[in-house]
Amino acid sequence: MSQRHVLVTGAAGGIGAACAAAFAAQGDHVTGVDARTEALSTRLAELGDTYGAKTLALAADLADPDCGSLVAQAAEQVGPVDVLVNAAGIYPATALSDMTAAAWDRVQAVNVRAPMLLTVALGGQGRPAAVVNISSGAATRARPGAAHYCTSKAALEMLTKACAVELASAGIRVNAVSPGFVTVQSPVNPVTPEYQAAVARNPLGRPGSPDEIAAAVLWLASPDASFTTGTVVRVDGGATAGTTDLPIHYPTTTALQSSGGEDHHDHT
Which of the residues 51, 91, 149, 250 is marked catalytic? Predict the structure, then answer.
């Protein structure tokens, strides 16, 4: 592939940093966006030293309604943006009884509104491009303390489809990657060991890595995925497929002898 300009939000750490590194490793120019200015500059400098990649750091709070202007800023300094990876996201733990309008709105602003504004700005370039949003298994499974986060990711998946439909005629593909539990060291979104042990259970029996998520992002942004848009790729160790935590609920002999209809047991 020819050298591209890739804009990655949340590039200072975690999945965003892994995505930035994956694109830099194949020779792409990388613009990273994050609110953590020092960490962002350090990470992008490392990419330049390691891969010889041209990098640009843009410090920004994605809750800003003007965050779409980051696309123009990046294009002015590096060139038109070919790939947008919306990896930034916040997931504070807030019980529903403690939820405030401000707490709710900030999560929606960063996790949903910012990807929308950046994608709209990308479409304004008037040229083909690819967008990859980072969703979550939380889009389909609620959990205590995460009503705002789960709702934001469900909305992001619908936004992915809506943008794919409206921007297809402009040659812009919009897809999403939905990670399962991924081990990251995040000072912004820390998790307890107990939480990690609970959510890391999946058929493959382990958490994922940021590099495994980045590999899926890299494919969706590549010409190999030229006929793929509006889809969500779930990279979750099989968590969406089902669980291995439940035992077989019928003895084998009973199952073989049964000739009647299905009983209404709880199959959750």
Answer: 149
- Can you tell me the distance from the alpha carbon of 171 to that of 166, in angstroms, rounded to the nearest whole number? 10
Structure tokens at 132: 């990859």
Verify whether residue 51 is a known catalytic residue. no
Q: Is 209 left (phi over 0), alpha (psi -120 to 50) or beta?
A: beta
CA gap 242, 233 in Å, rounded: 16
Token pair listed for 152: 């934001």
- CA 256, CA 253: separation in Å to the nearest integer? 5
Nearest-angstrom CA–CA distance, 37 and 57: 8
Q: What separation in angstroms does the CA of 64 have from each of 87, 106, 175?
A: 16, 10, 24
Query: Is residue 144 packed enough to be buried (19+ CB in 10 Å), middle (13-18) or exposed (0-12)?
Result: exposed
- Burial letters for 110-141: b for 16+ Cβ neighbours within 10 Å, e otherwise? bbbbbbbbbbebbbebeeebbbbbbbbbbbbe
Tokens for 24, please give them: 């830099």
Side-chain-facing half-sphere of 102: CA atoms under 13 Å: 0
Nearest CA to 131 out of 1, 210, 19 is that of: 19
CA distance 113 to 163: 13
User: What is the average pLDDT across 49-56?
Assistant: 95
pLDDT in tens, 18-31: 999 999 999 999 99
Whole-number Å distance between alpha carbons of 51 and 24:
6
pLDDT of residue 190: 59
pLDDT above 60 (res 62): yes
85 touches 71 (CB < 8 A): no
Which token pair is 35? 């609110």
Q: pTM to 2 decimals?
A: 0.89
